[in-house]
Amino acid sequence: MSEEKSFVDTTIHVDVKDYYGNVLKKSEDLNSNACVTPAKPIPAFIRQALKKVHPKVTERYYGCGLVVPECLEGCRILDLGSGSGRDCYMLSQLVGENGHVTGIDMTEHQLEVAKEYVDYHMQEFGYKKPNVNFVQGYIEALTEAGLEKNSFDIIISNCVVNLSPDKKQVLAEAYRVLKDGGELYFSDVYSSGRLTEEIKNHKVLWGECLGGALWWKDLLRLAEEVGFSPPRLVTATVISVDNKELEDVLGDFKFVSATYRLFKVPKSSAESCQVIYNGTISGVEDSFEFDCHYTFKAEDVVEVDGEVASILTLSRFAEDFTFQPTGGPRGSCGVKPKAGSVDPFELALQLEKKSPSSATGGCCSTQSAACCK
């Protein structure tokens, strides 16, 4: 799609807008559990932020995970498919009055709810001027909607990419509006294989975030084609549909809610190196869970692969780490680099076996810090 050509509604867009604008009036109207599956228990600081969100906004919320990366204070954040604005208003508190959150959604009814309560929330948060705005537009056409290239530190999305018929274009537009070193941190629904046409053409299954789910391996391929670093899997949870009629249509396909982080950094030719987490990210001073491979304990030496070394060096986390070549003066840490993609279904099963207190994953375990410059 060229930037000069206006984006046009597809049949899927029309159906999705109708489903989320007219069919669904509140979370209880959903026909499956796909859009309400939390990836992890919600930590106290986020629960506190969510309590300040107006009930009318919350009741029109449909999401498959909690999308709260680390280092948010002062950041410019874009929420793809922001809906009624729940996540935007929660993030508004975490970025602070000097940060900014933009929500984009194509569904007019959802945006009406979000915009109605801007003044209410700014008053509730004690802000002198709004640090949130909402734009009507398509996640496949961000620049056409007026969002500038290279303008956001972080893009989040909560159970929305699956609703798009053109996932590659969504990723390409996200890459375009992110700053260098920026991050796409998003939770979405993935399938155990490429779905049949019957499933993809089922309006309710598409609206319920299942019919448009990507095979998780295709995400890895599309991210690379667009230019992102290989996706880092943060956490995953198996989705139970709990609807006999829909389960009959889905057959043997399985689904998982998974959170990934993708970075806009050059392809790395860096070698593995040792990194030391300085313990400077607010809220995770003792231990920073980067993804399902790496948890950095403050002052411990950890050997990382070249890809992670590049991400940490070029992203907003650079000042929170000390870097040294492998075999540096502090010696080997005894932990070998962990490379390669992770099957989210396997991770979800591993996490199910652990107690909630020991489950890994970063989407729900961090607070904000002054990291965006």
UniProtKB/TrEMBL annotation:
Keywords: Methyltransferase, Transferase
Enzyme class: transferase
UniProt-listed InterPro entries: Arsenite_MeTrfase-like (IPR026669), Methyltranfer_dom (IPR025714), SAM-dependent_MTases_sf (IPR029063)
Catalysed reactions, as listed in the record: arsenic triglutathione + 3 [thioredoxin]-dithiol + 3 S-adenosyl-L-methionine = trimethylarsine + 3 [thioredoxin]-disulfide + 3 glutathione + 3 S-adenosyl-L-homocysteine + 3 H(+); arsenic triglutathione + 2 [thioredoxin]-dithiol + 2 S-adenosyl-L-methionine + H2O = dimethylarsinous acid + 2 [thioredoxin]-disulfide + 3 glutathione + 2 S-adenosyl-L-homocysteine + 2 H(+); arsenic triglutathione + [thioredoxin]-dithiol + S-adenosyl-L-methionine + 2 H2O = methylarsonous acid + [thioredoxin]-disulfide + 3 glutathione + S-adenosyl-L-homocysteine + H(+)
Gene3D superfamilies: 3.40.5.100, Vaccinia Virus protein VP39 (3.40.50.150)
One Gene Ontology term, aspect cellular component: cytosol
Methyltransferase domain span: 73-227
Protein name (database record): Arsenite methyltransferase
Species assigned in the record: Scomber scombrus (Atlantic mackerel)
Lineage, opening ranks: Eukaryota, Metazoa, Chordata, Craniata, Vertebrata
